[in-house]
Specification:
CATH architecture of the largest domain: Orthogonal Bundle
Strand content: 5-15%
CATH superfamily of the largest domain: Intergrase catalytic core
InterPro entries: DNA_brk_join_enz, Integrase-like_cat_sf, Integrase_recombinase_N, Phage_Integrase-like_Recomb
Radius of gyration: 25 Å
CATH topology of the largest domain: hpI Integrase, Chain A
Structural class: mainly alpha
GO molecular function, one term: DNA binding
Low-confidence stretches: 374-399, 409-425
Oligomer: single chain
Strand order of the largest sheet: 3-2-1-6
Largest sheet: 4 strands, antiparallel
Number of strands: 6
Keywords: DNA recombination, DNA-binding
Order of helices and strands: HHHHHHHHHEEEHEEHHHHHHE
Length: 425
């Protein structure tokens, strides 16, 4: 399907992709019991729609568009589209297999299913009927090379090269430097650190990180200090948020130094985005704006070009999270600690293990001989706690207890947690 313009219909008004699940209404809805009104049903439908993140609703809305365009082309009546016959859904899936990535095919299927669920329409398709089609989508996409290429990882050298190209007198560059270094060393997602766009309603105090969400924690026994960012909303914790940790680093990619520069130059205030910065228009008038994902990626692309970094890496913000993960693993940090640092609930972080032979090699070496012959040294780096303490904790405790032990060793402090303040000069 090349033309994705649906036929005009009172059931499918023109709207954003994210709003299609709610505003595109099936022509035939299940009858209501006598005690339930249409107003009640509308409220239930709206509540169901808001159970899904806006970005996910947008993806599902794209799948719903494809489904209805397919039905338009094959002249499927509106009353046959919901509840859709199982063979109709399978025919729709078969039509897009080979034209989209496997993940896109799966998402579009879930979009049509979610549309049924939100409006209380029965879903007639059994999961066993879609399994072969989804498997075919994976196989054909692999053979055709459809889908996103494997994201390469940024290295510390790449990050330092990027930081050297930035101008410390330009507010955007200073804000970007803090954001890019905190994202790398905090193994964070770019979406957790930036706003969606620069529209007037893109920044939400209840969703986006602000200066009051930054604090410092000390461990006097380990003589170490950790900076904590707490976005109110993250991918894995959309209602409570999560802590993002990073410590002082050596060289120009130090996130603590970048944070101090940003606070002193851009002076972010409570109630505005942490990475807010000053922008001047053509007439020299200054306005403040948050750091959007588009501006971040564009600045990252330009910085990569200025630093001579491969363009394949440049535009990929997620390569920062992959690079931070790889760097900690190469330093000998145990896998479970890295998993906790990156806030992965499952084992998906294993897909980030680029250069896996280099990462695993230290664990495969023969034990040191008794005569004390030298072994290949680990990468020295003072801010990280000794590996022996982590290994001891992880060998004796289960996963949950290990997290608590790590908190005590590297996060919890004998001093109370206080908001971070820039150093006095």
């Amino acid at each position: 399907m090349t033309d994705l313009t649906p036929l005009e219909s009172i059931y499918r008004p023109h709207c954003r992709a994210a709003d299609r699940l709610l505003l595109w209404i099936p022509s035939t809805l299940p009858p209501l019991p006598p005690v339930i009104t249409e107003e009640m049903r509308a409220r239930i439908t709206e509540a169901r729609a808001h159970s899904i993140a806006d970005s996910t609703r947008g993806t599902y809305g794209s799948g719903l568009l494809l489904f209805h365009v397919y039905c338009d082309v094959h002249r499927i009546p509106d009353d046959q589209r919901a509840p859709a016959h199982s063979l109709l859904i399978q025919a729709f899936l078969a039509s897009i297999v080979g034209g989209y990535s496997a993940s896109a095919v799966s998402n579009y299927l879930h979009g049509v299913k979610t549309w049924h669920t939100i409006h209380g329409v029965p879903w007639l398709l059994d999961s066993g009927e879609t399994t072969p089609l989804l498997a075919a989508a994976k196989r054909i996409a692999r053979d055709k090379g459809i889908g996103k290429p494997e994201r390469p990882a940024f290295t510390v050298d790449d990050l330092e090269a990027i930081c050297r190209t930035l101008d410390p007198t330009v507010p955007l560059d200073v804000s970007f430097k803090f954001c890019v270094t905190a994202t790398f060393w905090g193994t964070a997602r770019v979406k957790e650190m930036t706003v969606v766009n620069l529209s007037s309603d893109s920044f939400h105090p209840q969703r986006h990180i602000q200066i009051q969400h930054v604090s410092e924690r000390w461990d006097h026994k380990m003589k170490s200090q950790v900076t904590v960012l707490h976005p109110p909303v993250t991918k894995a914790a959309p209602f409570t948020g999560e802590d993002i940790f990073f410590a002082q680093q050596l060289g120009p990619s130090d996130p603590k130094g970048a944070m101090a520069e940003h606070v002193l130059l851009n002076d972010p205030q409570p109630g505005e985005h942490l990475f807010s910065h000053v922008v001047r228009d053509s007439q020299g008038r200054a306005t403040r704006r948050p750091l959007s994902r588009t501006i971040f990626i564009n600045r990252l692309r330009q910085a990569c070009a200025d630093a001579g970094i491969d363009a394949v890496i440049g535009p990929k913000g997620h390569s920062l999270r992959i690079g931070g993960t790889l760097e900690y693993l190469l330093r000998g940090v145990p896998f479970l600690v890295v998993k906790y640092q990156g806030r992965w609930a499952g084992d998906s972080f294993g897909t980030y293990l680029r250069k896996h032979a280099v990462v695993i090699a230290p664990y495969l070496q023969a034990p040191a001989p008794r005569d004390g012959a030298a072994q290949p040294p680990r990468t020295p780096f003072p801010p990280l706690p000794p590996d022996e303490l982590f290994d001891a904790a992880l060998s004796e405790l289960d996963r949950e207890e290990a997290r608590e032990a790590l908190d005590r060793m590297s996060v919890e402090s004998e001093s109370p947690t206080v908001p971070w303040l820039p150093p006095i000069r």
